[in-house]
Amino acid sequence: MSLELTRNFSIIAHIDHGKTTLSDRLLEFTQTVAERDSQDQLLDAMDLERERGITIKSHPVSMYYNAKDGKRYQLNFLDTPGHVDFSYEVSRSLAACEGAILIVDAAQGVEAQTMANLHLANEQELQIIPVINKIDLPNSDLPKVHKQLEEIICIPAEEAIPASAKNGIGIEDILEAIVERIPPPQENPDKLLRASVFDSIYDTYRGVVSYVRIMSGTIERGTRIKLFHTAKTYEVKEVGVFSPAMKKRDQLKAGDVGYVIANMKSSTEVKIGDTITNNANPCSEPLPGFKVIQPMVFSGIYPIDTSDFEALKLAMGKLQINDAAFTWQAESSAALGFGFRCGFLGLLHMEIIQERLRREFNMDIISTYPSVIYEVTQNNGEELIVDNPCKLPDTQLIQEIREPMVKVYIMTPAEYIGDMMKLTMEKRGSVENTETIDDFRIMLTCLLPLSEILIDFNDKLKSMTKGYGSMDYEHCGYRPDKMIKMDIMIAGEPVDAFSSIVHRDKAESYGRGLCKKLKEVIPKQLFVVAIQAAIGGKIIARESISAMSKNVTAKCYGGDISRKRKLLEKQKKGKAKMKAIGKVNIPQDAFIRVLKND
């Protein structure tokens, strides 16, 4: 297909605004998928995506459309996730497009992640086609959404296409708009091979499969290619397109979106965002936009059975090919044995990776409490980056600890503004700006510590606003604060799996809660076991597990009372000796129960 008849586009939207349903209708209308193979959430290949109703991975597909002008167009569609944790996936897919369909829910209007994804598209200078979806709902409000489009995101209301993906309304209008409004791809005049890798997967039999957008030149079987990031060369074994299954082609040329299989066998050989060029006649510089993504949240992942360590290592390598934002390195813990320190973009990202390890690779794993990266200045002026509480130096050696901050954009109905401000204050944050969006909703711009929004912030926001609130966040540097390391000691021995870096004002309540939880899950011993939360040498919380009792006087059926006293005294001495030399072996399921509850 010529460049003039090719269109590359993506769909961006807030979660649950109908992006996946619209994808299904486009595939049906263009007859890309036979009716017998059609199903809901066709491009969501993972069970997890179907269960949760979210898109996790980008899914490219090539469609052919006979337009009203009599020409046949090739439409390369790159499906994208909607959640803020997968924004890197979205940015890589948008870099391979010339245009984007922006979906807005006719009932809910513009949301926080609508804005965030629109900013990503504008950074790539894409042509935006606004679509107002779910117009068939009884509570849809088109005038309100038109007003929001003009006032919030500065798009003329008359450009918006009314549609209902569920009922197939407006699908042809959307396809015509793609053909008319999105410009065709432009090829570099030198016609040297430049292909951008926007995703990749690992195939057990064929190795690494790279998803590429050809910016200029052609690539075919037998071509010797070079990757800019690693400077390694490979021979291409197969090229093809997605329809939506992988389909072999003789070659891919400028404007095409497809896949390349070369003789890559290792997870470290390909980087998302890298540039592929011809080894014999390479281009002088890589395509712009490649960057190594920095994780925001860290957690330890350990195999429950230590013999699974190598299998887990192999599984993580394969997952990293498919998810460039996921990082890992080996570490060991006195309590949990050998495992890995893993980096994620957010809590949902962490949850998805753990679930994929369990489902796709049958791994039995346990994860430690999530933490963020702290910057530490020592008294001698040395700077440290700490992503694991166990690596934090002693308190007397630390001059300052800086924690990562995020700017959070909260969209909420005006009646809940008081609740949102209260929630922000509880999480050690501040409200920097309040902006009225329309007659019903406002947007709060808040500054919060990243560690405070990790666990339950979004859940509380949804609960307080009855599901109408939404949020998006971006990293905005570091701020010094009263952060301290809290250790949990069981029978006087610190357990590194439960160590955490917390704010001094919240340390006591967090310590008490964790000690209570541990008291419930650790089995009784023959002696009293103390569970203590400590900051340095100071104990801030304590719970005691009482000793198992044994009636040593049961065999005494009479006689002098001194005989019973003698037996009880002997037992007392034995218990004291046990307490002095006894060790508590914490069962694996106790770690699992506590860390899962956290």
End-to-end separation: 54 Å
Total number of domains: 5
Q: Which whole number gives the mean pLDDT?
A: 80
CATH fold description of the largest domain: Rossmann fold
Task: Please identify, by name, the CATH architecture of the largest domain.
Answer: 3-Layer(aba) Sandwich
| Largest beta-sheet characterization | 6 strands, mixed
**Regarding CATH, which class of the largest domain?**
Alpha Beta
Number of helices: 14
Structural class of the secondary elements?
Answer: alpha+beta
Unreliable spans: 40-50
CATH superfamily of the largest domain: P-loop containing nucleotide triphosphate hydrolases
Give a written overview of the molecule.
- The protein is an alpha+beta fold.
- The protein has 14 helices and 31 strands.
- The chain folds into five domains: 179 residues, P-loop containing nucleotide triphosphate hydrolases (Rossmann fold); 85 residues, Translation factors (Elongation Factor Tu (Ef-tu), domain 3, Beta Barrel), CATH 2.40.30.10; 73 residues, Alpha-Beta Plaits (2-Layer Sandwich); 106 residues, Alpha-Beta Plaits; 113 residues, Alpha-Beta Plaits.
- The chain has a six-stranded mixed β-sheet with strand order 2-3-1-4-5-6, with helices on both faces. Strands 7-8-14-11-10-15 form a six-stranded antiparallel barrel. Strands 21, 22, 23, 24, 25 and 26 form a six-stranded antiparallel β-sheet that branches.
- Helix 7 packs across helix 8 and helix 12 packs across helix 14.
- The longest helix is centred in the C-terminal third of the chain and has 21 residues.
- It is globular and about 110 Å long.
